[in-house]
Design a protein that fits this description.
The complex is a heterodimer of chains A (about 675) and B (about 525).
Chain A: H1 2-12, H2 18-25, E1 30-31, H3 40-56, H4 64-87, E2 96-106, E3 109-117, H5 119-142, H6 149-168, H7 172-190, H8 197-228, H9 233-243, H10 248-266, H11 274-277, H12 283-292, H13 297-304, H14 306-310, H15 313-336, H16 340-360, H17 363-393, H18 411-425, H19 431-443, H20 450-477, H21 494-514, H22 519-528, H23 542-566, H24 578-584, H25 589-635, H26 642-663
Parallel strand pairs in A: 1-2
Antiparallel strand pairs in A: 2-3
Chain B: E1 4-5, E2 13-15, H1 24-42, H2 45-70, E3 76-82, E4 87-94, H3 96-116, H4 139-146, H5 154-167, H6 174-192, H7 199-231, H8 236-245, H9 251-269, H10 277-284, H11 287-312, H12 317-340, H13 345-364, H14 369-393, E5 396-398, E6 401-402, H15 412-415, H16 417-431, H17 437-452, H18 454-484, E7 496-497, H19 502-520, H20 523-531
Antiparallel strand pairs in B: 1-2, 2-3, 3-4, 5-6, 5-7
Classes of the chains: A mainly alpha (about 675), B mainly alpha (about 525).
């Protein structure tokens, strides 16, 4: 209470005093000591790799990929050591703040670059470095024959560094740097084969749509600075908790702007359209960036900004609605896609919808959002790698209607993919079950209409997920061989299959290790300030929820079995119902974007260009001509004669002195 | 006071205790300059260049170390006191601004010397004529060049100039200031006339610089006389006291005196209307000398202006502020407007430096320690950028001579992406685009002026921002020209960027990297400048 009062009183003194408040609040995160002070290596190592490979160019072709992979593993080792040292401390002392340097000092606005090492960021660090390093290894095999592979690995390292910066930043400003960094890496990697115009366009599309979200983030940061006078986490959160209901308008604005940012990065409605096209990038990229890590940055942002969203129920509700909507949206699109990677992308969108929904439920959902993010990171990355392995064997084909019966020729891929598949549909004992079930359960908590809407959406979503994932799995690995004539599928090399096996183990067991044992909630709850003693009760008994969900899942899988395993799968897609057609077109997302934004945007820019060239350019041109004209006239004074120069000086002295004398 | 009588002086004059550590930087540079003269006389010609350059660089670096040592001896004034009346006659003030300026000038001096040392395969410094005494184009000059003559005396000359520049912001009295002004100016007059190519232009520039410099010195001396008449002292602290106690009827001496002293200093920073020499001299002087002058002279002169405005004439501020405001406005507007129609790269940079002087004056007129810090930061950052920029100009050649016409720079970005990229970056720094030191510097002076400069400060900043916008056009045009222009059609003699030796490469790299670094993490130097912003009296 006391500290709350203090913060309120500092609030009354205006924004400038917030900095002082932040110091008082630092009790939460101690200054880093011991091994934690080396945490900057986490970002520095991969960044070094990116720099060496980019500057070295072709000269690094031989050792570059190996160096990048080694540095990525190095980051993992550093992360693991920091994690272990954190384990050794009592819960209250775990979060530490690593001060790096004074970054911006402009008057009353001071930002120091620093890292916040707490339970939440460490979970991300481990996920990013571990999965990232596995995918580096995988890429050694997958990109073996690519002439530009050192560039690819440079971008991968750049991505890992930026992503780590994003999750380790202790201020929104530094987070923004990482945020833009991952956006850049994503853009570069989607368009990695930029000589294919369609791929280049996909990169541009992702970049442009992400800019919309990035704008949200920057405006959110502007509002924070305007309102709190600072952009570091501790000050902003202290302010948010102190403000409470007083300044709802500001808090809601910040929350909605952060949500917009999260939507852009995490491909949530209405900024979801880029993710499907982003599959143009090399498959390891799809696995790392567009499934396991970068697209979950939005979830991280929302969860990290928990204190802000807790202070604004409206924005929080918006998060949940966006999550629930995207969850169904992605699932429906996933049912109709014949492109293996695009179906997986739709599924990613839908799964992140689950996480967003959980994040929008408030403190009860944060830990589960992160839990699902973790398990999803493993099983989705594993399945993408599996997809890459299939494509590797099938001459880069992605049409599932030309697959089938692959299980016999690609045993390892089949098993590892299968484990991921079982995890995502949420079959008991596999990872996805533990995390997704918890989200569904949490969605049913509350009063009024919300638990019913969100809970049922999450439950139905699970059923649809089971359907489309089973469809994907059966069409690819089982049934009749519908291969084109020129393919000779074969198992991929060990560099590719070992990462898949590791991820498959995670898909199978990570959930059961972390979930029912309470490890993940026990680890994360101190960050969110959740009191475990308080039990929240869903509107239906938990067992009922679980049973109904399971029934829906089995029904979905059975339906897929009926349609895609028992019945013949046509090689050419049938016309299908109106819904199917709509879903194939991504529910007309591109058409809607085109009609609602692109065409009016084009007209707007055209008319603006017209106005600009006639009106503003006229005025600007006139001004410029005026400046130029006076410049030419003034130039005549510069005639090269020392005597005129001296006269200028004398005239200046006389004129100014005369004027000063007259005035005084 | 433990004063001791100095032998040779009248016993009435007493010398205060001298802290030699505090003035060690000055002594080192002066010593190195004198040794340089001896080197010129005794070291064989084939080794002279390397010896001179190393001597100068080592001297400057040692002096810089001494500056760091001297920071422990801050806050003292010393000099000769008239024992009978207890009046100080000559004074040095070792304080934050003085040491900051000394350090800045020394570092910039190192870069300047390294650029001048560029030989490009010849025996002597490439930018300088082999024989300064010869008539341009005469047989004498040809013979000298054929015989392998070299002008290595430019290095001791530069060292003397640096010595003067270091005293300039350090002296606490008007006579010392005048001496420093002349000590720094005379070598620069000579250096300006020593260009290897286009020597008539160079000699003309030197003569103009000398004539107008002498003219401005006369103003300075006249102002000094009037101020002495007003206050009975040359020492700045005493003048300040006299003004606060002085009768208003005496303003007839004070107002013109203060203004005329300022005129002498404003001439050195090229403020309008005392700027007319700048484009001609910048164009005519050997390019490395131009870079050195633009960076170091400006720093030294702004140090002196700060001291005069904040220590000597602070109490009489109301009498001269308006005059300086008018000059700042004129400088910004004329500098930026005239830069628009320039067609020669060196003249363009000259006008740009005039506009920059105006921006710095805005910081001076903030009348606050924040303003002092901002000015110190500005001149340091500008110095690094302009030295690198002129070093790059000296590398762009056609037919063996420098290609300074803008049309010759067209399409340079396509063939020399690295050099053009560095130059484009420096242009952005001059324009004040974020992520360059130019932005932080402008932001610092403008925010100081808005914060404590009152209504006039705000007006100055508004005009300053508008003028910055005008200059952006100029710099952007250069960038557009380099990257989107078509190279000149003359394929027999293409414009090329010669590959410099390690010394010039070093100056360009350091200048560019510092410009970038201070744009991204300016806090270290900003803090230092802020902490160095206390004058002693």
């Amino acid at each position: 209470m006391q500290s709350g009062m203090e913060t309120l009183s500092t609030l009354a003194n205006g924004a400038g005093t917030y900095a002082a408040g932040a110091l008082a609040h630092d009790g939460e995160a101690h200054a880093a000591t011991g091994v934690s002070t080396y945490a900057w290596l986490l970002v520095a190592l991969p960044l070094l790799g990116a720099a060496v490979l980019m500057i070295g160019g072709r000269r690094t072709e031989k050792f570059g990929p190996l160096l990048a992979t080694a540095l990525s593993w190095g980051a993992f080792v550093v992360g693991a050591i920091v994690y272990i040292s954190m384990l050794g401390r009592p819960t209250g002392d775990r979060p530490v703040n690593l001060y790096l340097f004074d970054w911006v000092a402009a008057g009353s606005f001071k930002v120091s670059a620093g890292m916040l090492l707490d339970q939440l960021s460490l979970v991300f660090v481990l996920l990013i470095t571990f999965v990232g390093s596995l995918i580096h290894v995988y890429s050694l095999g997958y990109m073996k024959h690519d002439p530009d592979k050192q560039r690819f690995f440079a971008y991968l390292n750049l991505f890992v560094a930026s992503m780590l910066l994003l999750v380790l930043a202790n201020s929104y400003l530094l987070l923004y740097v990482g945020w833009e960094g991952v956006g850049l890496a994503s853009y570069l990697l989607i368009g990695f084969w930029q000589y294919n115009p369609a791929f280049a366009t996909a990169g541009n599309k992702a970049f442009v749509m992400n800019r919309v979200g990035d704008f949200g983030l920057s405006i959110g940061i502007f509002i924070m600075f305007f309102h709190f006078g600072a952009v570091d986490f501790s000050t902003v959160f202290a302010g948010a908790q102190a403000v409470g209901g007083v300044n709802q308008g500001f808090m809601t604005a910040i929350g909605l702007m952060l949500l917009l940012a999260a939507c852009g990065k995490s491909a949530q409605f209405p900024l979801q359209a880029w993710l499907g096209d982003a599959m143009a990038g090399p498959t390891p990229v799809s696995a790392l960036i567009h499934a396991a890590t970068m697209v979950t940055a939005g979830v991280y942002l929302v969860v990290r900004s928990g204190p802000i969203f807790d202070a604004t129920p409206n924005a929080q509700l918006a998060v949940a609605i966006v999550g629930a909507f995207t969850l169904i949206f992605g699932a429906i699109v996933g049912c109709a896609k014949d492109d293996l990677k695009k179906a997986l992308a739709a599924s990613t969108m839908s799964q992140i919808g689950y996480m967003m929904l959980a994040a929008g439920l408030g403190p009860i959902g944060y830990a589960f959002a992160i839990f699902h993010l973790l398990t999803h990171g493993f099983f989705k990355a594993g399945m993408f790698l599996g997809a890459g392995s299939v494509m590797h064997g099938m001459n880069n084909q992605v049409d599932m209607r030309r697959f089938g019966g692959m299980w016999a020729v690609m045993k390892i891929t089949w098993v590892t993919f299968g484990l991921g598949f079982l995890a995502i549909i949420g079959l008991p004992i596999f990872s996805g079950f533990w995390s997704k079930d918890k989200i569904i359960e949490a969605a049913f908590v509350g009063e009024g209409w919300r638990p019913w809407v969100f809970g049922l959406v999450a439950m139905i979503g699970a059923g649809i997920t089971a359907f489309y994932m089973s469809r994907l799995f059966f069409m690819t690995f089982h049934g009749k061989r519908r291969w084109t004539d020129d393919v000779h599928p074969h198992e991929s090399p060990l560099t590719m299959t070992i990462p898949m096996m590791v991820l498959a183990v995670g898909s199978a067991f990570l959930g059961i290790i972390l979930g029912p044992t309470g490890i993940i909630t026990g680890w994360l709850d101190p960050v969110f300030g959740v009191d475990e003693a308080v039990e929240e009760h869903p509107v239906m008994p938990a067992t009922v929820i679980m049973v109904v969900t399971l029934v829906l899942v089995l029904a979905g899988a059975a339906l897929a079995w009926l349609r895609y395993l028992r019945d013949e799968v046509p090689v050419v897609a049938p016309t299908g119902s109106l819904v199917t057609q709509a879903a194939r077109q991504d529910l007309y997302q591109d058409q809607i974007n085109e009609g609602a934004f692109m065409r009016p945007g084009l007209h707007l820019t055209r008319s603006l260009v017209f106005l600009d060239s006639k009106g503003i350019d006229g005025a600007a041109g006139g001004l410029a001509a005026m400046v130029g004209g006076s410049s030419s006239r003034l130039r005549k004074l510069q005639n090269g004669f020392a005597r005129s120069y001296a006269l200028t000086m004398l005239a200046g002295v006389v004129a100014i002195l005369g004027a000063v004398w007259v005035i005084s | 006071m433990t004063s001791v009588a100095v032998p040779g002086l009248q016993t009435a004059f007493q010398q205060s205790t001298i802290d030699y550590l505090a003035i060690l930087p000055l002594l080192i540079v002066f010593g190195a300059a004198i040794v340089g003269v001896l080197v010129e006389a005794f070291v064989p010609r084939d080794r002279r260049q390397i010896v001179q350059v190393s001597l100068a660089v080592v001297g400057l670096v040692a002096a810089f170390v001494a500056v760091i040592v001297a920071t422990g001896h801050q806050g003292l004034t010393m000099g000769i006191t008239d024992g009978s009346t207890d009046r100080r006659l000559f004074a040095l003030a070792v304080d934050g601004p003085a040491l900051f300026m000394q350090g800045t000038i020394l570092l910039l001096g190192v870069l300047g010397i390294l650029t001048m040392a560029e030989r490009l395969g010849g025996v002597g410094p490439d930018a300088f004529t082999p024989s300064g005494a010869s008539t341009p184009g005469s047989a004498f000059e040809t013979n000298a060049s054929r015989a392998g003559a070299l002008t290595s005396e430019v290095f001791p000359l530069t060292m003397f100039a640096i010595f003067g520049m270091m005293i300039f912001p350090t002296t606490n009295d008007l006579i010392g200031m005048f001496v420093a002004l002349e000590v720094l100016s005379l070598p620069l007059y000579i250096l300006s006339g020593l260009a290897r190519r286009r020597r008539l232009l160079s000699q003309e520039a030197a003569l103009k610089y000398f004539l107008l410099g002498a003219f401005s010195s006369a103003f300075f001396l006249f102002g000094t006389a009037l101020l002495y008449g007003y206050s009975g002292s040359f020492v700045l602290g005493d003048i300040s006291k006299a003004i606060s106690a002085g009768p208003i009827e005496m303003n007839g001496l004070l107002v013109p005196g203060a203004f005329l002293v300022f005129v002498g200093l404003l001439f050195k920073v090229a403020a309008v209307p005392f700027h007319a020499w700048t484009p001609d001299v910048y164009q005519g002087a050997p390019t490395p000398v131009t870079g050195f002058m633009a960076a170091c002279t400006k720093a030294a002169a702004f140090g002196a202006i700060l001291r005069l405005a904040y220590v000597g004439l602070d109490t009489g501020r109301w009498e001269w502020t308006n005059a300086l405001v008018v000059i700042a406005l004129l400088t910004m507007v004329v500098g930026s407007v005239l830069s628009v129609t320039q067609t020669d790269m060196k003249r363009l940079l000259a006008y740009s430096s005039i506009a920059h002087a105006g921006f710095v004056l805005v910081g001076v007129l903030a009348f606050d320690s924040k303003g002092i810090g901002a000015v110190l930061f500005y001149v340091a950052t500008y110095g690094f950028a302009i030295i690198a920029a002129f070093a790059i100009v000296s590398l762009v050649r056609q037919n063996g001579g420098e290609a300074t016409h803008l049309s010759q720079w067209a399409g340079l970005g396509k063939r020399y992406p690295l050099v053009a990229g560095a130059f484009a970056f420096l242009m952005l720094a001059f324009a004040g685009i974020p992520a360059t030191s130019g932005f932080m510097a402008k932001y610092a002076v403008f925010s100081a002026a808005v914060g404590t400069g009152g209504a006039t400060g705000t007006v100055l900043v508004v005009v300053g921002v508008l003028c910055s916008a005008i200059t952006v056009f100029v710099y952007a045009r250069v960038i557009v020209l380099m990257y989107f222009g078509d190279p000149p059609a003359d394929t027999d003699n293409p414009v090329e960027v010669v590959v410099p030796s390690v010394t010039t490469t070093f100056s360009i790299a350091i200048g560019t990297v510092i410009t970038l670094a201070l744009g991204v993490v300016p806090s270290a130097l900003l803090d230092l400048a802020d902490r160095a912003s206390q004058f002693v009296r």
